[in-house]
Amino acid sequence: MTHTDPQLHGVDPRVAGGRLTVDLDALAANYRFLAEQSTPAEAGAVVKADAYGLGTGPVVEALVAEGCRKFFVALPEEGLAVRASAPEADIYVFNGLFSPEAAAFYREGRLLPVLNSQSDLSIWEAHGWDDEDAPRPCALHVETGMNRLGLTPERAKIVAQENALTGALTPRLIISHLACADTPDHPMNRQQLESFQALGALFPDAESSLANSAGIFLGGEFLCDVTRPGVALYGSNPMNGTVNPMQSVASVHARIAQLRHVPAGATVSYGATPVGRDTLIAVTAVGYADGYHRSGSGAGVPLRTAQPVGSHGYIEGRRVPVLGRVTMDLTLFDVTDLGLDTLQVGDFIELMGSNLPMDELASACGTISYELLTSLGHRFERHYVRSGDHI
Ligand SMILES: *Cc1c(COP(=O)(O)O)cnc(C)c1O
């Protein structure tokens, strides 16, 4: 395989220390499932942070092919990347306008700002327009409990009254964000819904959107007009403590750089973790610089006192534990039970994927799948596959 587009394919496969494989059919199937669960609402897609680390271009193209017409990103530059693959879509940018100069950037890219404050509203009204009377399409974010971004309910009421008179802005979508959607019984969910419904009613010409991935599974009124799934598209379980209904999309493999025997009592990696038996070690060429978190080390990190089990790899039908501390560029696995006959230098160990669910790896690292995905580094060889042509 020749090395064509480093943006898309990452590092040359002949020399890469690891491989990131993105299954676009699994992504498409996840979108179809979430769209079905969202019915009668329309399912958009959240593709911020380079589509949660998996690559905006291929992800957006696959979603457009499934009929997705509304995309959400955090920053305007991300919106431009989406625009390149979705010429006709509505592209909403969550973080709003930081400065008057930003307005022209949005307009040129045909991006729709999510206006989060009075300052955002004033900027979008006044800046970046050649034509005084041009409509100013946008989304409005109303605050219902996150206290992160969004107009306070008092401010939203004033805006609704004023805008009904002046028509200065054309709000197309009213959004808010759930704080506890992955905990269905949490009283916050219903409180936020009620507050959101009251605020949404102030803008009768706009659609409404409240549910993220987990919010979709709250169902019913939470679906509103448009849903905004993110992490579930990429295969993470949107609900706590249930069987994951999503298909695995991302897999990460590390290449074995060396196989070595160490005797019982020898020590491994930084901090000198002792090994309890004669051990065969697979030294792999992926480390925390690639997003394989140090907190998932087998030993020698604070998290192991709170939660004794560290990360695992998977090879030849077996799970193999991380040995000692994960380092920047290298991670050691205990492959004693497999033996030298089955392994060779250059083989790949799975770090995350269909055999090692990302939610499980995240929990071994004391974090969430969102952080794992968005930490994936730039040193992987990247493959975009359709299920069936897995390598
Ligand atoms: C990131 C984000 C989403 C998507 O959330 P998931 O939990 O990944 O589905 C939806 N809405 C807003 C405002 C977000 O910031």
UniProtKB/TrEMBL annotation:
Chemical reaction(s) catalysed: L-alanine = D-alanine
Q: Name one Pfam family in it.
A: Ala_racemase_N
Q: What's in the keyword line of the UniProt record?
A: Isomerase, Pyridoxal phosphate
| Main EC class the enzyme belongs to | isomerase
Query: What's the Enzyme Commission number for this chain?
Result: 5.1.1.1
Give me the residues that bind substrate, please.
R148, M328
Q: Which residues carry this modification: N6-(pyridoxal phosphate)lysine?
A: K48
What CDD domains does the record tag this protein with?
Answer: PLPDE_III_AR
**UniProt pathway annotation:** Amino-acid biosynthesis; D-alanine biosynthesis; D-alanine from L-alanine: step 1/1
Residue numbers annotated as active site: K48 (proton acceptor), Y270 (proton acceptor)
MF GO annotations: alanine racemase activity
* Names of the cofactor(s): pyridoxal 5'-phosphate
Question: Is Isomerase one of the keywords UniProt gives this record?
Answer: yes
What are the Alanine racemase C-terminal domain coordinates in residue numbering?
Answer: 249-385
Q: Which family does it belong to?
A: Belongs to the alanine racemase family.
Q: Which NCBIfam families match?
A: alr (TIGR00492)
Q: What does this protein do?
A: Catalyzes the interconversion of L-alanine and D-alanine. May also act on other amino acids.
Name of the protein: Alanine racemase
Which species? Nitratireductor kimnyeongensis
Q: What is the lineage of its organism?
A: Bacteria, Pseudomonadati, Pseudomonadota, Alphaproteobacteria, Hyphomicrobiales
Q: Which gene name belongs to this protein?
A: alr
